[in-house]
Write a structure and sequence with these properties.
heterotrimer, A alpha+beta (363), B mainly alpha (367), C alpha/beta (334), A: alpha+beta, four-stranded antiparallel β-sheet, globular, B: 367 residues
């Protein structure tokens, strides 16, 4: 208590003595700097600091979400590879995990950024692995379907399909419980989810005009871009976190008693279904809690973006506090945003964890 | 099927081994071939780049690049190794951080051996750290005084990591006990502290230490930049360690608490003599993992301009004569970090196996 | 409680100095060294060499102050600061003087609470582009990707310039100089922008300097100079005159090599400079041989420039003496 009061009083006196402005009024002032990537949001140097920080949050969010999805996929794959009966594959996966886990993420980020920006050609000599796709040190350019009203309808169809698939799965589960008859609800659901938008697309006459990236002046215009900064950060985060996720998945699968898979086998369940119905639900219970902290780590580690130039929240807040001199407010904003993000992820994963545990109990 | 085959006791020949372990089924065989192809495609070129075609001595990156052609340019490390290891420490006095690094390594090695896990170890650490402090600062026994702004390189990385652990650990025990305390205020404070710290990135803590902390202190009093970063690392690591310790505390069977209580021991004695030794013993492997994390995290001080191993390397790259050697430089940094972290992680795994094999009772007897 | 204790012990161990309680000069004299805030690494201005010794134009400024105060240029301690840290470091008294290629602006001079003592390097922001793009003027840069370092006036000037000329650009903002340079040289950007001095040194240090051109437009004024805190005029004077002594010495032809012989000269200006006559040292509150010590141990401005910047390909340009076509002009020492 005393310590807190002591720090606060010192701070107030110092701010006063050094005539440092306080408060969040600066947020409505013009930022005056450009941002390289804006996650499809509108922004110019004439916008306010508030908007600039908003762009930063959007960028952080984007890298975190994509990172979580990709790291989970790669990590699961690696975790299963480590358990593979194939000696070579298991060894290679183990080597990957050991090397990646034991080198700091920051070093890896610098490394990837150096590799990406130094080893790819300039836009004029861009590699084109596929027609319309260009690989250069300005990033990966790829064509994007041109805006068309039918896209909106396709999104609507996708949502409708998802609802339908969910209803279908519920009906199938109830029927199986009542009659024992099985229904391939997974494949049927997938068909509905993907089929409906496709029908809408075909029904509208399949408009497939693509906006192609074209080299004009300094760089490509048109199409969509994956910048090198984003790519290096994503690469680094995914590769690093996947090594940890692999270990979690491996531990989860190993934690399921051997008797369980033998029992499933004895019941005559095919391998894949045994995995899905017996092993996975039990493994998930072990996997989910540590996975939560890995997801939190990706989110927090995305703040290392500041070192390689991806305009995430920390990088923009940094510029802001350097220009306005309002360090306390800038750092408070960073901390608040990350706290909110962390708490939301924890809350979501806790909810999911309860669900997994419950399903497991019912099975 | 394969599981059955693997249990066959007969010593298999190499062909049989390959059939079982590499080509047991069609997908397996395809995987093996794919792996072999990738290895063949990437390993030989890497070896020739890193070793065969590499240049080990050159006066500048330009000369080195010209001499190396397609090879790596390790001359950079050769030229700058002392700066990378010791940072801006006075050149003539480099033996002092050198000896300090060796002392650190010796302390780590001794602490890793379970037969030295006695109260004497604490004394050894105190003596070792005092000696390192005397060596680094000097000002006694005719050693020249060297201010801590000049410390840098690998020795700074080790210092940050070691002191970070040494101070964070006791703090984390207090926090973990506090979180399980029956006093609501204490519990609330500990919970808020732990969750708050774990919810924000380390970078924001370091920024706070480097930009905000000067505002917290009365005007005129300044705290050294190194100490501020060190404090941030300690506060950060303590929150994570506290959760590990709490896990250990939770794993202690209720009976132990009750038995200790029944013996009429006070809270302090119960905790110090019965509960903590067991809880810490259980948590050693995850503790070591958290230590590895902290060791890697020290590299983040780059962002606030502290001359640790990584910043020394980057600063060396900054020199015009040596620009454009990034890949080699970062590979070197990776190697150094890897050696330390890998050693720790192997140790933690071995320890985990040992502790799992021996019954808890044996582990308890050791204390 | 434990934390307070830790902090207290830490403060006691690592040393904490009360600075504001007395004048900076007294505090500096008492602790026996000048604490100088410098750049973490900027070749030519402040950069540790392979032996770990700090070298550069800004570093020489620090050494000159130490020579003036103590008669010993080695009594300096350097605090490397990042762009974000430099102002809090000076404000809080962590450093006594900030010699870190900092642009003198009205905001920094007033609301941040600093006094700039003068200019030790006149700079201006420019653009460098690869020659093969065949660009002759910055006005042709519409749509370009620009590599820039964050948190500096550079970033703001860049936005202003493009907005004023109704052009657009894509910034690539990277904190570390080495990284941002690699990005430009790898072709990640079409344009690299920073102070012209930085462009020149960069171009000179990389292979094939002729493949890159520096555009004629200089879009801003960047007077870089050492700064001290508001409210301590005596310290302000010492730092200011340490800088001017170096410039004045070059104008008078006094160098570290010849100042001993020149001491015998009958020239009254030289006699005043070396402290044989006059009381300038006493007026400033330091030893009377202060300027002699600066030149003897550090050298004059030209020597420092030649030792640190010339090897990197910098030209004197406007940083030449006013008598030789530049704008360096030191008030007279009398």
């Amino acid at each position: 208590m005393f310590v807190g009061w002591y720090f606060v009083s010192n701070t107030l006196r110092n701010l006063d003595e050094r005539k440092i402005a306080t408060g969040f009024a600066f947020l409505t002032r013009e930022a005056g700097f450009e941002i390289g990537e804006t996650s499809a949001l509108a922004y110019s140097a004439a916008d306010t600091y508030l908007r600039a920080l908003g762009i930063g949050i959007a960028n952080t969010f984007r890298i975190a979400v994509i990172g979580v999805v990709l790291a989970t996929l790669l990590g699961t794959l690696l975790g299963l590879a480590r358990l593979s009966h194939n000696w070579l594959v298991a060894r290679l996966a183990a080597l990957y995990v050991e090397v990646i886990r034991n080198v700091p993420l920051l070093v890896q980020l610098f490394f990837w950024y150096t590799i990406i920006s130094e080893n790819l050609p300039g836009p004029r000599d861009a590699l084109s692995p596929l027609p319309g796709v260009f690989l250069s040190n300005r990033g990966i350019k790829f064509p994007l379907p041109q805006d068309h009203p039918v896209h909106l309808w396709m999104v609507a169809a996708l949502l409708a399909g998802a609802v339908l698939a969910w209803l279908l799965a519920r009906w199938a589960a109830r029927r199986q419980a009542a009659t024992g008859q099985q229904f391939p609800s997974f494949w049927a659901g997938l068909g509905v989810v993907l089929g409906l938008p496709l029908l809408v697309f075909l029904g509208a006459g399949a408009p497939h005009e693509l906006e192609q990236p074209v080299l004009s002046g300094f760089n490509f215009t048109g199409g969509a871009t994956l910048t090198p900064e984003f790519a290096a950060l994503l690469f680094g985060l995914v590769i690093y976190t996947a090594a940890f996720i692999a270990e979690i998945v491996r531990a989860g699968v190993l934690a399921v008693d051997r008797g369980q898979s033998e029992a499933a086998h004895a019941l005559g369940l095919p391998r894949r279904r045994a995995m899905r119905l017996v092993i996975l639900p039990q493994a998930l219970r072990v996997i989910v809690p540590p996975m939560t902290s890995q997801y939190l780590n990706i989110t927090k580690n995305s703040s290392l973006a500041v070192a390689i130039g991806y305009p995430d929240l920390v990088s923009i807040a940094n510029t802001t506090l350097n220009q306005t001199g309002q360090a306390i407010e800038g750092i408070l904003i960073i901390m608040l945003v990350y706290l909110t993000l962390s708490l939301s992820i924890s809350a979501f994963m806790n909810w999911y964890n309860r669900r997994v545990a419950l399903t497991g109990a019912r099975a | 099927m394969s599981a059955v085959l693997r249990r066959t006791p007969a010593l298999p020949g190499p062909l049989e081994w390959a059939r079982v372990n590499l080509f047991s089924s069609v997908p397996n065989a395809l995987l093996t071939l794919l792996s072999l192809y990738l290895l063949w495609k990437y390993v030989p070129p890497f070896v020739s780049w890193a070793l065969l075609d590499a240049v080990w001595q050159a006066p500048s990156s330009k000369a080195c690049r010209e001499a190396a052609g397609a090879g790596a340019c390790w001359a950079f490390i050769g030229e700058k190794h002392r700066f990378i290891l010791f940072g801006t420490y006075p050149f003539e006095e480099h033996w002092r951080p050198g000896v300090s690094i060796l002392l650190f390594l010796a302390l780590y090695a001794v602490s890793a051996m379970r037969r030295f896990w006695t109260p004497w170890l604490v004394l050894a650490w105190l003596a070792g750290l005092t000696l390192i402090g005397m060596l680094m600062w000097g000002g006694v026994f005719g050693l020249r005084y060297v201010e801590n702004e000049r410390w840098g390189g690998l020795v700074l990385t080790l210092l940050l990591a070691t002191f970070g652990i040494a101070f964070a650990f006791p703090l984390s025990i207090v926090l973990a006990l506090g979180r399980r305390s029956e006093m609501p205020v204490v519990r609330a404070v500990c919970v808020i502290y732990i969750e708050l710290i774990r919810g924000v990135p380390l970078i924001s803590m370091l920024f706070m230490a480097s930009v905000m902390m000067p505002l917290f202190l009365p005007s005129g009093v300044t705290v050294d930049k190194l100490l501020r970063a060190q404090t941030a690392l300690i506060l950060f690591a303590a929150a994570y360690l506290a959760e590990v310790v709490r896990g250990g505390l939770q794993a202690i069977p209720r009976g132990q608490y009750e038995a200790a209580e029944a013996l009429g021991l006070s809270f302090a004695k119960r905790t110090a003599l019965v509960i903590l030794p067991q809880a810490l013993k259980i948590s050693i492997p995850p503790l070591v993992n958290t230590f590895i994390g902290l060791f890697k995290d020290t590299s983040l001080v780059v962002i606030i301009g502290l001359f640790d191993l990584l910043l020394a390397l980057k600063t060396a790259l900054n020199e015009p004569a040596w620009s454009g050697i990034g890949v080699e430089a970062y590979l070197f940094a990776s190697l150094v970090y890897f050696v330390f972290c890998y050693a720790m992680s192997q140790y933690s795994q071995r320890l985990e196996r040992d502790l799992a094999r021996g019954p808890t009772a044996r582990a308890l007897k050791d204390t | 409680m434990k934390r307070v204790l830790g902090l207290t012990i830490g403060v006691a161990l690592f040393g904490a100095g009360a600075v504001h309680a007395q004048g900076t000069l007294e505090a500096v004299q008492k602790k026996g060294f000048v604490q100088c805030g410098v750049n973490v690494g900027l070749a030519g201005f402040s950069q540790p060499d392979s032996r770990g010794a700090w070298k550069g134009l800004d570093v020489d400024m620090c050494r000159a102050i130490a020579a003036a105060v103590f008669g010993d240029a080695t009594k300096v301690r350097y605090t490397p600061t990042t762009a974000v840290q430099r102002f809090p470091a000076l404000q809080s008294g962590e450093v006594d003087v900030l010699a870190r290629n900092t642009t003198w602006t009205v905001t920094r001079d007033s609301s941040l609470g600093f006094n700039f003592v003068g200019v030790n390097y006149y700079d201006g922001q420019g653009f460098m582009v690869p020659k093969k793009l065949n660009i002759k003027s910055a006005k042709q840069l519409n749509g370009a990707t620009v590599c820039v370092q964050p948190g500096t006036t550079t970033e703001l000037n860049l936005s202003d310039y493009f907005r004023a000329n109704r052009m657009t650009f894509k910034p690539v903002v990277i904190g570390k100089l080495e990284e941002v340079l690699n990005a430009y040289y790898a072709g990640r950007c079409d344009v690299f922008t920073t102070d012209v001095s930085g462009l020149v040194s960069t171009r000179g240090s990389r292979p094939n300097p002729a493949d890159h051109v520096i555009l004629p437009e200089v879009i801003s004024k960047e007077p870089l100079g050492p700064a001290v805190r508001h409210g301590d005029d005596r310290w302000f004077d010492i730092v200011k005159w340490s800088l001017y002594a170096m410039i004045e010495a070059e104008e008078m032809g006094l160098t570290s090599k010849n100042i001993d012989q020149q001491a015998a000269s009958k020239d009254p200006a030289v006699q005043r400079f070396i402290g044989a006559t006059g009381d300038f040292g006493k007026m400033l509150g330091v030893d009377n041989k202060w300027s002699f010590n600066i030149i003897k141990q550090v050298g004059n401005y030209g020597e420092s420039f030649e030792a640190n910047l010339t090897p990197l390909g910098f030209e004197r340009g406007i940083n030449q003496l006013w008598t030789k076509g530049g704008i360096l002009y030191a008030p007279p020492l009398r």
